[in-house]
TrEMBL record:
<keyword id="KW-0677">Repeat</keyword>
<dbReference type="InterPro" id="IPR036322">
    <property type="entry name" value="WD40_repeat_dom_sf"/>
</dbReference>
<dbReference type="InterPro" id="IPR015943">
    <property type="entry name" value="WD40/YVTN_repeat-like_dom_sf"/>
</dbReference>
<protein>
    <submittedName>
        <fullName>WDR64 protein</fullName>
    </submittedName>
</protein>
<dbReference type="InterPro" id="IPR051242">
    <property type="entry name" value="WD-EF-hand_domain"/>
</dbReference>
Amino acid sequence: ALESIDFKNALEQFQNLVEKMVIRKTKETSDMYTKDGDQIDYDKFYTTTRTLFGSAVKDQNVQAFFRKIMSNPDERPEWPEIFGCFTQERDGTSSPSKENMVFLVSEKRQITHSVVKRKDLIKGIVKVPLLHLTVTVSQRGVLTVFNKQRKSFFSYSFYFHQDTAWITGCDFLPNLQYVVAVTESTVILWDYKSKESKSDGFVIKPMKNCLLCVCTVTMADNLAKDTILMGDDRGYVYLLTITSDDFIMKQSKAEKVSQFKVMDSESFDIPKRKLHDDWVGKIKYFSALKRFGSCSTDRISSFVLDDIKRLEDQLPVKEFSVPRGVNAFTYCGKAKVIVTGG
């Protein structure tokens, strides 16, 4: 408690110091400036900061903080930056150092393996806790699976064999052990366990509307199938169930994309229902609630939370209206609350 009080007092003094610097710098740019003994230069700022926080601050962070204030006092930095938060980068070879006395910030590790190329970006990151895997997918089609040590496990560049459609989301099928990703017009199923040189998988196409998001419905009732939910740019939510038999029965012999076999979307029973009047921005299944959630910028049906059975019937769904809609949401099981962001 004493340390907490001491830090609070030190922080108040530091904020007063920054405020004086901002006022002084503002006066320097106007006719109100008169030189006096109250001027705070870098040496004075450094000495005062060191006195207040001791070894919890590093020289380079003090210097960077001072430079930010002097260059643009109107856009003053946040005080956590004086401790190196949000600004420091570490390479993957650095050894663990002593924790900061103010913030317990874990070490950052840089993955040296190049997951994506220039002018590409990550569109989805999914953790698979049971298998200690992390799945990433890039907009231009690089599917990557990392192991527990965050080293590249398997990677496949799907865009070398596909059209210009961008990938919009991904997830992991726990029963079939496949990575699922959606593009504007296709569903990709990647067998990450196949050898990199002989990547294997399936492509389900064509999908009539532009798919924007995908998630897995986690159920342990059948180990030979997986169910996924997808949202599109017309406000529809789709329910697609895939079994291991589909990989054998529904392949198209007439078309092949590299090692990926094509499956006709018309051969699947894909229930869908229009839940929103705008794009479906995100979709997620909460196994603890046995409900799925979907959100949209639609101001009337902004957020829907209901059973997946509602996608196969026309019964009313539980929906919530939020001005300007909802862009993101999550569920906290401990607090039993759902939080939305608009």
